Structure formats: structure tokens, C-alpha cells
Amino acid sequence: SIISSADKMSSVLRHCTKFTPSGFGSLLSGNCSHGRTCALQYFVSSNRYSSSKIKVDLDSSNGVAIMQFQSPPVNSLSLDFLTEFAINLEKLELDRGCRGVIITSAQPKVFSAGLDILEMYQKSPEHYTEFWKAVQEAWLKLYGSTKVTIAAINGSSPAGGCLLAMCCDYRIMADNPRYSIGLNETQLGIVAPFWFKDTMLNVVGHRETEKGLQLGLLYSTPEALKVGLVDELVPEDKVLSTATETMTKWLAIPDHARQISKSMMRKPTIDKLLANREADITNFVNFTTKDSIQKSLGVYMEMLKKRKS
Predict the structure, then answer these.
(1) 84 catalytic, yes or no?
(2) Which of these is catalytic: 115, 164, 183, 297?
(3) Which domains are present in the chain?
């Protein structure tokens, strides 16, 4: 089961490695420890990591892993999805044969629709705590990865889907007028937390983030390119191949130099969440359990039901 796998992973990491949640800890100490090798032997048995919601194929010839989201209908970021996502990223982080990760969707027309509203509606405070820890962990693993990370965005990517894309080093999106991307939380009556804000701020700057967050903007593909939310627009059938070509350029840079440069840029943002993790969870639980927020989420879910019918 997912939980038992997570427990095993945690146990191995506790006993075998000093690897940090952000992924950058190993850069400062230089050589890999014997413990990290121990963890490697535990995790890497083949070049394919299988889980029910995520498929990962690692090409041993170039060190590039393609991670496909396969959680129909819209790759919602449920507790199970986020747990699998973090575990798979951890496996790849510990795999010396992996140098880069491309994340994309196996579902047509959608990259990820964002956080699963069902995880935030009419559940216990304990459940909200567990869920938010998983959201934090997924962000820490992806934003703090030492690997080259490229988002091959082959569909719409609102809210949490946008967050995952922004965590990557480079973003390539399908040039389709039906697709959009952005942190649109305020449209649902909820608020993007400070580390969502910080991630967007680091990508598009202060003024665009202020507008985007307050208005809950979903940017069309040309708008996303114009403000720098994505780096490149390509035809829909070229998204993955372009990501693979782009990865080659990034991997031409010596890993150690690139990793330290990435760490210099991202470590302050990561440290800010690590220093405020418990307070952030408490804020989320207090906010989500408010009657007004539960009511807003209920209205939104009713609207979704009407759309489906």
C-alpha cells in the first residue's frame, strides 16, 4: 500500500542517509555518504517506477526520467496522488543514474486541475493536517530537487497544477486557445498560501503576482508566455519532444555548478517554509474548517456537478 511504502521509505532514509527535505542538503557536504548508497540500493531495482497514479520511465542512456500523471479524470492532487508523487521524486533524487525529470500528463487536455477539493470538504481537522503536510512535501521535493526539472504542460493547469509547473526549472506549454494556467484560488473563495505566492513571485515578479493572485487569473497560453509564466509555446504534439530536446541543453551544464546555482536562487524560499511549516499547517486547518469556507467549497462542488450533468 501507499502508506506502507511511505513508512518503509522513511525508515530507510532515517537509518541510511542525511538527505534533507529540500534536496539541496547534499550539495553542501560534497560526496555522497555510504548511507545514501544504501538507500539507492533499496530503491533502484529497475528503470521503471510504478504506482497507481503516476508512471515514471527512466532512460538509462541519458539519465532523463519522464513522469506521467495518470489519475483520471483531471489529475487532481489528492492525498494519495501527492504521497505517490513525493515518493517517486524521492526515488529519482536518490538515483545517481537520473539527471533530469520531465513531468507531464497522460490525461488528454489537462496537466493537473490542482488540489482535490474533496480532501478539503467535510473532513476532520486531522485529515486536513495530513493532507496539507502532503502538499508541503510535494512542493519541497519538486522545488528543492537537485535534478533538472521541466514541465511539459499538455493541457490546462489551474491552481495546484500551476504550482507544480512553476516549481520546475523550465516550462513548455501546448499552444492551444482552450488551455489556461494560473493560481485562481480566490475565485473559489480560498487563498493561496505564502509559499505559493513566493513561487509565483520568483517566476513572474511582484506586480504580476499581485494582480494574478488577487484576481485569481487564469492566463491564456499567449498571456502566460507574455508574463513569463511559461517559457515556450509549441504545437500540442510537440510538447514532450521539445521538452526532451530542451533537457539536452540543460544537461550540457556540469551538474554540480548548476545545482549550486539553483540552490542559491531557491534555498531562501525553501527555508522560509521549513521554518514555518507547523504554523502554515495550523493556518490551513483553521481556515479550511471555517463555516464560510466550507460553504464556498460546497457551492463550488455543486457547480461542478451541474457542469458534469
Answers:
(1) no
(2) 115
(3) 54-308 (3.90.226.10)
